């Protein structure tokens, strides 16, 4: 049938009653025009294609069903002609499709975290921003402590630690083989169903603790810890690195949590003034190359510097950048790290010299992303008299406890609160500070008695922040701790304690809460649990030694389970050479699928 056939007047053979006289229905609905018929044919063809695609989808077959000439031509025209004869075009029934997002099942993947290498002095830093490190102290010691739990059947996930290679040494990233801490489980155990009990029906849960001396080798490189899944889930695990030295420019103590790589990090509180050295260390533990861009914020606003864009990291590679070469003479520098490709780890190694006297060493870890509410537990300060004596020395004016804030997007007014074991503490300088858009400020935290505190910030625009603690005496070497902002714990979190240190688990809750704490012993057993209540805006510092309840030695870690409210946590560390602190971030989530939306 051609298109011209539709232009003829109806005859007797084409009328419904065969009399040659148009019916009442055909008088009310005139014949469709050529343009209308063309649109009807296209609509009918689309409906047929859609229906074919839906049927193929329901059969689980993804294929194209080509329309034959007869189907696309005569068949469609017959369908349209029949509809026109009836006086109306009846649309096909809309198929029912569930367009809601559903998880597409994927294999559980290993959880990976990056451990910072020991602080080192830069060699050849004056030649550019890329630097090669060389160890200096003759007494420096570094180690990593790893703690993990089994599933309910007593099965431990496979765990290994690998060394990341320095780009400054010309390494491609392919270093030594990983060192196994626990044996890898078969694939069916990793990806199978979670266990609810042991083979005899009895619930079994144990811990595994490992201590590794100089895990990054003689060069002191960063390392990566990999923990495989069990039963399609991530097992609770944690690792922490410790550095200590009694001599040299790098005398001091640092403890750093091994944190998950990410595509965005924020670091605040770096100093690039005379006598201070800050080195940004970027690590790529993934199997994919990564390209990193940096954004720097200083006291006068964003810092424009060459070499901040397109920093390439091969898989398994680290790169060290002297921040003083990019942003010199900054008292409180903030850096945003953004990565494309593989996720990266980011830390800043920092040390100071007050004349020829060592001024402490610390590894600044990422703080929580900018927000209007920021929480920093674990600030340790001496009593106000000691602080005043230290700060009163020539050149030590900026050495007191302080808060570093950055407002990256817009100007902000921030209210600062410091909370101790008995609630909030009044600050001599008040609690309000203004931050210009894209700039940073330093807020002194002088006037506090010795103790452990939580610093909170409430602002009218997103801010990033970290605090700095202090230890030591006037006339002697001092040491600092960097206190990162953290998110609330979540349901369950395992925390490792550095070996041969005195450490406190620091807990805080704004509105009050409770957390159940189970000590993890060196011999692999789990001790008796206790529930710690937290009052509103109060900070509790619990000694790891006290967590054992007088049974056995000092626990190597603790399992935290939130019972009530939102709880924030950190660990403050005391050593013979100084102090340190590291954040307790929420347990890394295990991704078992990605959202997929089915539709047309």
From TrEMBL:
Region annotation Disordered: where it falls in the sequence: 1-51, 160-196
Membrane spanning residue stretches: 69-90
Pfam families registered for this protein in UniProt: DUF5719 (PF18986)
Alphabetical list of InterPro entries matching this protein: DUF5719 (IPR043777)
Biased segments, Basic and acidic residues type: 1-10
Signal peptide per UniProt: none
Superkingdom assignment: Bacteria
Entry annotated with the keyword Transmembrane: yes
Keyword Mitochondrion appears in the UniProt entry: no
Compositional bias of kind Polar residues: 11-27
Keywords noted in UniProt: Membrane, Transmembrane, Transmembrane helix
Protein name stated in the entry: DUF5719 family protein
Organism: Citricoccus parietis
Native organism taxonomy: Bacteria, Bacillati, Actinomycetota, Actinomycetes, Micrococcales
């Amino acid at each position: 049938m051609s298109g011209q056939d539709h232009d003829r007047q109806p005859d007797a053979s084409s009328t419904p009653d065969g009399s040659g006289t148009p019916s009442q229905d055909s008088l009310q609905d005139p014949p469709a025009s050529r343009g209308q018929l063309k649109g009807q044919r296209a609509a009918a063809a689309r409906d047929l294609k859609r229906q074919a695609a839906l049927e193929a989808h329901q059969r689980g077959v993804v294929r194209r069903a080509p329309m034959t000439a007869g189907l696309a031509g005569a068949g469609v025209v017959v369908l349209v002609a029949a509809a026109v004869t009836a006086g109306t075009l009846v649309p096909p029934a809309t198929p029912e499709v569930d367009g809601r997002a559903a998880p597409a099942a994927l294999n559980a993947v290993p959880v990976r975290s990056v451990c910072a290498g020991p602080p080192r002095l830069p060699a050849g830093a004056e030649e550019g921003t890329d630097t090669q490190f060389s160890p200096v102290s003759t007494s420096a010691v570094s180690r990593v402590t790893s703690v993990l739990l089994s599933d309910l059947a007593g099965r431990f996930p496979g765990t290994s630690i690998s060394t990341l290679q320095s780009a400054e040494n010309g390494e491609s990233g392919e270093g030594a083989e990983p060192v196994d801490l626990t044996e890898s489980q078969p694939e069916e155990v990793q990806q199978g169903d979670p266990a609810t009990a042991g083979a005899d029906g009895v619930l079994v849960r144990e811990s595994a603790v490992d201590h590794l001396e100089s895990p990054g080798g003689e060069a002191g490189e960063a390392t990566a810890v990999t923990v495989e899944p069990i039963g399609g889930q991530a097992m609770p695990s944690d690792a922490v690195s410790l550095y200590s030295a009694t001599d040299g420019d790098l005398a001091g103590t640092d403890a750093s949590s091994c944190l998950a790589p990410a595509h965005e990090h924020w670091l605040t509180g770096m100093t690039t003034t005379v006598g201070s050295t800050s080195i940004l260390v970027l690590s790529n533990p993934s199997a994919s190359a990564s390209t990193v861009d940096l954004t720097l914020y200083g006291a006068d606003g964003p810092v424009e510097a060459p070499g901040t864009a397109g920093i390439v990291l091969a898989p398994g590679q680290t790169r060290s950048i002297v921040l003083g070469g990019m942003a010199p003479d900054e008292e409180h520098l903030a850096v945003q790290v953004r990565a494309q490709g593989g996720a990266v780890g980011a830390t800043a190694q920092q040390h100071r010299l007050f004349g020829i006297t060592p001024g402490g060493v610390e590894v600044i870890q990422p703080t929580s992303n900018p927000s209007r509410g920021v929480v920093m537990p674990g600030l340790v300060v001496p009593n106000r008299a000691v602080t005043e004596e230290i700060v009163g020395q020539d050149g030590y004016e900026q050495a007191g406890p302080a808060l570093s804030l950055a407002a990256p997007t817009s100007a902000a007014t921030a209210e600062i609160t410091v909370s101790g074991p008995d609630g909030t503490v009044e600050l001599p300088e008040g609690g309000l500070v203004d931050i210009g858009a894209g700039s940073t400020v330093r807020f002194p935290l002088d006037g506090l008695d010795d103790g452990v505190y939580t610093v909170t910030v409430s602002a009218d625009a997103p801010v990033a922040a970290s605090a700095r603690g202090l230890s030591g005496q006037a006339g002697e070497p001092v040491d600092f701790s960097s206190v990162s902002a953290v998110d609330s714990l979540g349901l369950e979190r395992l925390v490792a304690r550095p070996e041969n240190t005195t450490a406190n688990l620091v807990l805080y809750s704004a509105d009050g809460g409770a957390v159940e704490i189970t000590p993890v012993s060196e011999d692999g057993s789990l001790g008796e649990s206790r529930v710690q209540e937290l009052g509103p805006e109060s900070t509790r510092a619990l000694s790891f030694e006290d967590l054992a309840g007088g049974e056995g030695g000092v626990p190597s870690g603790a399992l935290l389970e939130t019972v009530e409210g939102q709880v924030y946590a950190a660990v403050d560390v005391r050593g013979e050479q100084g102090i340190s602190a590291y954040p307790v971030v929420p347990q890394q989530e295990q991704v078992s699928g990605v959202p997929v939306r089915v539709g047309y």
